[in-house]
Specification:
heterodimer, A: 888 residues, alpha+beta, 4 domains, 6-stranded mixed barrel, 28 helices, 23 strands, B: 109 residues, Arc Repressor Mutant, subunit A, 3-stranded antiparallel sheet, two-stranded parallel sheet
Chain lengths: 888, 109
């Protein structure tokens, strides 16, 4: 038969199926009735009585129902009829045992829901492309300095120009963000400003909501200042004024013409979660001055590849360029090399592993759920073997019976999927907390077609997973013996019990893996929360007062403001313990190179660097950072006195070895004053300034009066309520300048808490999965042991009669449970050892093979297994020998 | 006179043949025609006519239209299609080949 004919046949079948299905049966009936009637007429004419002739016609015609069935099969509808039969039957079966059905559905719904939710996160963050055109061509370019242990840092504008000149990319642009003060539109307010080179807009290629975006001409020193607003700012601050484009707004008291408005979802990559205005770098009050300097690492570069493909060749060209740049300006560039990475990877790098770990964990939980349901189904299948035997006796084939069982599983799976998706939908908002703010802002987590498809896929895979073994096992029963004996002693029983034992061991092994993983993370978290940050955060409040640079232009002004502010704040009752620190711990770091005066010159390429903080005298006292040697700063360390510095214990240990550093000189400074010689006057304790999870590095402190910044970050130790403290700061600031905003007020303990909020949330989530896994494993053990106890009632009766004490019987049952757990534990232990290697990057202060965690997890599982055996064991103990022996 | 069941596999050929002689027939007429043509030697197992007819519909050898019998009852009438006519030729030549071979085997025995 040609394929064309085959297609025509299919088309005829399909047409019939969809258009005339209901009429079809009716027509067939009528056609056959006519035949029988005509035949009966003929027989009647030859002399038979009417009833006789009808019976004879029927006999000659054959079995009408069977013929109709045959015709339906010919049209290919048999499967449809069987399916609807199977479905109806499955619904009936499941409704008849609501207990089993609801346990199975709830278990599945939890498993599928958790998986769907995790997948929706991964889908939106890792799988869905970035919301720009040609997302696979957009890359991030950064500089790293392995000698200084800096894996990724920004570039200078000079670097950007060199990269552009090398024509490595189709386009390259730079971004940076900071805050400017918007005036003239209501109260003065701080707006989150993205400073860009305008090529970023053509690279990302997102259409403005109104007007235009910035062009290259806007980034020349002579251009008229132009600004692009976010839709949010335009609506919130300017009441969605349609005539705004073309008018000017004032940022740091400079007029910028609004040239366009970007849609709400638009974000420039690597420029923070909140973005309100975009201006060209050449027009920025701060960064425009930095543009000519070849050093500096203030621009994050986003580039577009000429064509999508592997990054190897691009990296080679950047390597060559790096070498060339070092030759041009060795002082600034030595040790730095340009790197390229897909933007997607850079943006989601940190969250990738945790998400995959969690997905792996929920995958294991679903697997456990499936094993558990398979276990339940096996138990049921044993008791349903008589029903199966009856159906086989009536002519049902083995395939048909397997199909029936699988239909039931699929129905359970579908119910689980529906509830699971609903659960996932309701938890999506909470799960968004798993994402860092900058990712969450741009990648909304949604249930899209892919997520729903995933849910359907795993539910069907799960249905087959848990349904197949019971179906096959049950269909293999021996009709004869089943019909005779009923359920308890059927041939499949022993096989089924063996399989269930196996499944239970697998459950224990799976649970072991999850419990160990959760245990490791919990222990990491405990370590994290108990780590000593090097300072005392209790009762310390942090607040930001930023100075508009149009008003406060010189370091002298900055220092004067800080002096005045400190004086006014410290004069208030309860606020005596206050200081300025830029930057305080966990507030971003300034890393500077330094040299020790009089020391042997460093080998070429080697750099000494330390994190740099400018502080007022009381800082160490406020923060409880211990003084180890020498003295702390005092008010005499002023702009006119000799330059001094304080170093941290690590710096002293690492670079001064056994010598006393006090009295020695170090040379360093914040740009542009990089070569200032300072005398070390003291050594203070180490501080975890980057993150709680990062070991303290060398640090350099300088007096704020000798190295002021254009803004003050206040740290105040006070037992007053936060509101009172903020009011005190407000009052002090207002006395100096009424137009200064106070922002980012935070209690230091809260800031510490926030810094580990994400790992904490992930850990508790995984711990919850671990608890579910334990529960499922316990249910599995309980099911198998209690079944085995029930089927051995007679044996226990005999034992009891022969003098076995209840205690010894209990021990026997418990031993069975522990036996189940033992092998599972061994397998689980091996699996966990392999799996936890993947967790390494997520652990803090705990090795991946942490023996304590492994031992504790094993102990918990054994305890759970024993607990699960306890009830069946008690039942076995109480078997009445008489009843047991009479039974059957 | 005892009546023989038709040899398996020949039912399609018989139906096609009957339809090619008589044009449009309904099921009962087809059964009768096969009996008549074979002078009552061959008897169709009557019910099996209908699955066969449906399979032929699927294969596109016959077409069915609803009409009215002489007794004024609704009946489905079957008619050959071009594909059905071609199939008939093929079936006949194949049948003759097989029968010829069988006959030779019997005669040489």
């Amino acid at each position: 038969m040609s394929s064309l004919q085959r297609v025509a046949e299919l088309a005829r079948k399909a047409r019939m199926l969809f258009s005339r299905r209901e009429r079809f049966d009716h027509d067939l009936e009528e056609e056959m009735r006519l035949h029988r009637d005509l035949r009966a007429e003929e027989i009647h004419d030859s002399g038979a009585t009417e009833p006789d002739s009808h019976a004879a016609a029927q006999r000659r015609f054959g079995n009408t129902l069977q013929l109709q069935e045959e015709i339906r099969r010919a049209w290919g509808w048999a499967w449809l009829d069987h399916l609807s039969q199977d479905l109806r039957y499955a619904v009936r079966v499941l409704r008849k045992s609501p207990g089993f059905t609801s346990i199975a559905v709830v278990t599945l719904a939890l498993g599928i829901g958790a998986n769907t939710a995790m997948f929706s996160l991964i889908n939106s963050v890792l799988l869905r492309p970035l919301p720009y055109s040609d997302p696979d061509q957009i890359v991030s370019v950064f500089e790293r300095n392995l000698a200084r242990g800096i894996p990724a840092n920004g570039c200078s504008y000079v670097d950007l120009l060199e990269i552009r000149r090398s024509e490595t990319f189709a386009a390259v642009a730079g971004v940076q963000n900071h805050q400017l003060t918007l005036t003239g539109a209501g109260d003065p307010t701080v707006v989150e400003t993205v400073v860009v080179t305008p090529e970023i807009f053509s690279i990302l290629n997102v259409r403005p909501l109104a007007g235009r975006y910035l062009y290259a001409e806007d980034n020349t020193p002579g251009a008229a200042p132009a600004v692009v607003l976010s839709e949010g700012l335009w609506r919130g601050r300017f009441g969605a004024d349609n005539t705004l484009v073309g008018h000017s707004i004032h940022l740091d008291q400079q007029a910028y013409t609004v040239v366009g408005i970007m849609p709400a979802g638009f974000r420039t990559p690597e420029a923070g979660p909140k973005q309100e205005v975009w201006i060209a770098a050449a027009k920025d009050p701060l960064f425009s001055a930095w543009m000519p300097s070849p050093g500096g690492h203030w621009l994050r570069l986003v580039a577009k590849l000429k064509s999508a493909g592997p990054l190897g060749p691009t990296q080679s060209r950047l390597d060559a360029l790096s070498t060339q740049l070092i030759k041009q300006s060795p002082a600034q560039r030595t040790g730095w090399s340009l790197r390229v990475a897909p933007l997607q990877e850079v943006m989601v790098g940190e969250i990738r592993t945790p998400l995959l770990v969690l997905l792996g964990a929920v995958g294991l939980v679903l697997l456990l759920a499936c094993v558990n349901i398979a276990n339940l189904l096996l138990a049921r299948a044993t008791s349903r073997s008589r029903e199966v035997a009856l159906r086989q006796a009536c002519g049902a084939g083995r395939g048909r019976i397997i199909r029936q069982f699988l239909t039931e599983s699929a129905l359970l799976g579908l119910l689980g999927a529906v509830i699971g998706v609903a659960l996932a939908y309701s938890s999506i908002h909470a799960l968004g907390l798993l994402l860092p703010a900058n990712i969450a802002a741009q990648r909304p987590v949604e249930l899209d077609v892919w997520v729903l498809g995933f849910a359907l896929l795993i539910s069907m895979a799960a249905s087959i997973g848990f349904g197949l073994a019971p179906a096959v096992l049950t269909s293999r029963t021996d009709v004869q013996s089943n019909l005779k004996h009923g359920s308890a002693q059927s041939g499949s029983d022993r096989g089924s019990l063996r399989l269930r034992g196996l499944l239970t061991r697998a459950e224990i092994a799976l649970a072991m893996v999850i419990v160990v993983a959760a245990g490791l993370l919990v222990r990491s978290l405990l370590k994290m929360t108990s780590v000593d940050p090097g300072y005392i955060a209790e009762h310390v409040i942090r607040a930001d007062v930023s100075l508009p640079r149009y008003q406060y232009k010189t370091p002298q002004q900055w220092a004067a403001f800080s002096d005045a502010l400190m004086e006014r704040i410290q004069a208030q009752r309860g606020l005596e313990d206050s200081a300025v620190a830029v930057p305080p711990p966990m507030y971003g770091q300034v890393n500077l190179a330094f040299v020790i005066a009089g020391a042997a010159p460093l080998p070429p390429g080697a750099v000494q660097s330390a994190n740099y903080v400018s502080v007022t005298p009381k800082y160490f006292g406020v923060m409880g950072i211990p003084l180890l040697r020498g003295r702390v700063f005092n008010p005499e360390d002023s702009a006119s006195s000799p330059r001094v510095a304080i170093i941290s214990a690590t710096l002293a240990r690492r670079y001064f070895k056994d010598e006393n550093p006090v009295g020695k000189e170090v040379v360093f400074g914040f740009p542009p004053d990089t070569n200032i010689t300072r005398e070390v006057v003291g050594v203070v304790g180490d501080v975890r300034d980057v993150a709680l999870t990062q070991d303290p590095g060398p640090m350099l402190y300088v007096p704020f009066a000798q190295a002021p910044f254009w803004g003050d970050v206040l740290v105040i130790k006070s037992s007053l309520p936060t509101g009172t403290i903020v009011a005190g700061i407000r009052q002090a600031v207002d006395a100096i300048d009424k137009n200064l905003p106070i922002t980012e007020v935070e209690k230091l303990p809260d800031a510490l808490e926030t810094s580990i909020a994400q790992p904490k949330f992930r850990t508790w989530l995984l711990a919850a999965f671990g608890a579910v896994a334990l529960l499922l494993a316990a249910a599995g053990v309980y099911g198998v042991v209690s079944y085995s106890v029930a089927s051995r009632t007679k044996e226990f009766g005999v034992r009891a009669t022969l003098g076995a004490s209840p205690a010894s019987i209990r021990k026997m049952v418990l031993r069975e449970g522990v036996g189940l757990a033992g092998i599972g534990l061994a397998v689980g232990l091996a699996a966990a050892l392999a799996v936890t290697q993947l967790l390494k990057s997520q652990l803090f202060g705990v090795p991946a093979y942490d023996p304590i965690t492994f031992l504790l997890s094993a102990a918990i599982l054994v305890a759970v297994a024993l607990l699960a055996c306890y009830l069946p064991a008690r039942r076995a103990m109480r078997v009445d020998p008489m009843v047991a022996l009479r039974y059957e | 006179m005892p009546r023989d069941e038709i040899p398996p596999g020949t039912l399609y050929m018989l139906i096609l043949r009957v339809l090619s002689r008589n044009g449009e027939l309904h099921g009962y007429e087809i059964a009768k025609a096969i009996e008549t043509l074979s002078e009552d030697v061959l008897q169709v197992e009557e019910g099996s006519l209908y699955p066969a007819l449906q399979r032929m519909l699927i294969k596109g050898w016959v077409k069915a239209v609803w009409g009215v019998t002489s007794g004024n009852r609704r009946a489905r009438y079957y008619r050959l299609t071009a594909a059905g006519r071609k199939q008939l030729e093929q079936e006949i030549s194949q049948f003759e080949r097989v029968m010829g071979a069988v006959t030779r085997v019997i005669q040489t025995a």
